[in-house]
Each structure stands twice: as C-alpha cells, then as structure tokens.
C-alpha cells in the first residue's frame, strides 16, 4: 500500500509528517507533489514540495525549504536535506538560498552545496 514505496497520484497531496523541534517531534503538514516516498513503517522519506515550507531541524531551528525541490526526512520525521528558500545565517558555516542543505540526525549542518 502507500507505506511500501511511492504514492502515485495525479494531484498534489498533503501528508502529515513529523518534524523535529528542540522539545521533541511536532506534527506539521507537508504539501507534496506526486511521488511521495515512504519508509516501510509509513513515515515520509522524501517528496517534492508544493510551496515553500518552514521545517525545524532536530535542534529546533526553523529552515525554509524551497517550492518545487525535494525534501528528505529521517525516519523520525526530522529534516535531513532540502533546498533552501531563504539563507541559513545562524551557526557556521552559512548557507545561501538556492543551495541544498544537509543535516545530521542531531541537526548539525553536514553540507551546503550548489545545485547541479
């Protein structure tokens, strides 16, 4: 079923995801385009965003992920990777809008790379 692979629908779908916050995981709606990929247990693994989305890292820091780009979440719902709609200016190093930010399970920035 939907928890085993990709969800193939012709319209955008809104799914409930867990996004990490400093005080634990909190529910948030993520509006995804066609092709949502799920972990075997049913949590969202990845999708292409339909609209900019503000998602919190495992440390509770909000990032704005860009419309039309892929987002990847850890199985616990915390942000793993997305293309930034707004620059990341807190912490070090900084990451410019339009670059793919990559985060470790603890919320540490592990990469900031330009799109191909």
Brief sketch in words of this structure:
With about 120 residues, the chain is mainly β. The chain contains no helices and eleven strands.
Outline the structure in words.
- It is a single chain.
- The chain is an all-beta fold.
- The protein has no helices and 11 strands.
- The protein has a 7-stranded antiparallel β-sheet, with no helix packed on it. It has a two-stranded antiparallel sheet with strand order 2-3. A two-stranded antiparallel sheet has the order 6-7.
- It starts with 5 loop residues before the first strand and ends with a strand.
What is the fold's blueprint, element by element?
Elements (H helix, E strand, L loop, with lengths): L5 E2 L5 E9 L2 E9 L3 E3 L5 E5 L4 E4 L5 E4 L4 E4 L5 E5 L15 E5 L5 E6 L2
Antiparallel strand pairs: 1-4, 2-3, 4-5, 5-8, 6-7, 8-9, 9-10, 10-11
What descriptive keywords fit this protein?
mainly beta; seven-stranded antiparallel sheet; 116 residues; disordered N terminus; two-stranded antiparallel sheet; globular
